[in-house]
Amino acid sequence: AVVSTQSGHYGRDDKTVITPKGVPYEGKAFNKGNCGVSLVRSGEAMEKSLRECCRSIRIGKMLIRHDDDDSCRPPKVIYVRLPPDIAERNVLLMYPLMNTGGTIHQSIKELKKNNVKEDRIIICTLFVTPDSLRHVFAEFPMVRILTTEVNEDCALHFGERYFGTDN
Length: 167
What we know:
By secondary structure, the protein is α/β, with parallel strands linked by helices. The chain contains 5 helices and 11 strands; from the N terminus they run H-E-E-E-H-E-E-E-E-H-E-E-H-E-E-H.
């Protein structure tokens, strides 16, 4: 539901189409220039819903990893594959769980390195903690965040549960 809701935040234009019976129909068409970026692995769980809403949307990928030995270090960007014209697009950043905000924070930095304007970034998440919101908005106040729930107690390990690889 949160992925389909995000489509209302993307730009749309009025469009008239002619039905098979020759009757004009007034509707909306998504502007060109929208894309998704999923954070590997758990963010990929949201790709199917995005494709159902926006069939031909381009989707990039980012892999950001935490240092298990040192939780004080910021996460590292391991892999990035983005559409070449991402700087001209609205970006839906898909990551279902924001516990500390560190991963999202690092991914926004990476998008900005690729010239994406902060106000063109929409974070699509299922669960967030108040701390993660403070962490992200402290440095990136212009991003938008769409979520289903803000709660101190976030469900952990979404990706493992979704993909069936939890122990």
